[in-house]
Amino acid sequence: MNAQKLSKRLETVAKFVPTGAVMADIGSDHAYLPCYLIHQGTASRAIAGEVVKGPYESAVGQVQKENLVEKITVRLADGLAAIEEADHVDTVTIAGMGGPLIVSILEKHPEKLQGVTRLILQPNIHAKVIREWALAHEWAILDEEILEEDDKIYEILVLQRGQMELSTAEILVGPKLSQRKSPAFIKKWQREKDNWQRVLQSIEGAEQTPEIEEKRAELMALIRLVEGVL
User: Per UniProt, what is one Pfam family of this protein (predicted)?
Assistant: First the structure.
């Protein structure tokens, strides 16, 4: 992977960035995504934010190597603190972290999202918490994608400002994803269901304490939920 050829995962994130966007990539690592988006003529300007010094230095080096210092600003900052008002950022990408970490980044500096109209979020795990955050903060799901790469399954959520209603099942598996039922979607949730069933079997023989009963009820509810979608 490099600034000309992204991974399938990041390429999918990139396709949701609107043409002409001023984007901020939070947790940018080598800044491959912003470099790619500028090279493609998709983004007009970009901010690459990194909280760790090593990846920050890698991003600085990459932007210089690609001759994009006029178009991409690299900042060492904690999450959304990389965005300044004068940047006029309208699109934010956060990719390659767990869902809870992405939510904590969004919640830490909410004022930085004031001019932002689109969020493109790619959690490695627990996409559910992002949907819950979106519901609570008046962001609506514009689109979702699920893909498999190197035997890992990734979800991408594209949010725009607005209200939405989601069922319990849709919060868990995604409203757009559950409509399409792609092979990656079926594989992910079949795998999850199998795991829950294994845990359920393992606790069947255990002493039935209130905690065990609660866990059993929770697992059975999840299995029924997913079975209803599949």
Answer: TrmK
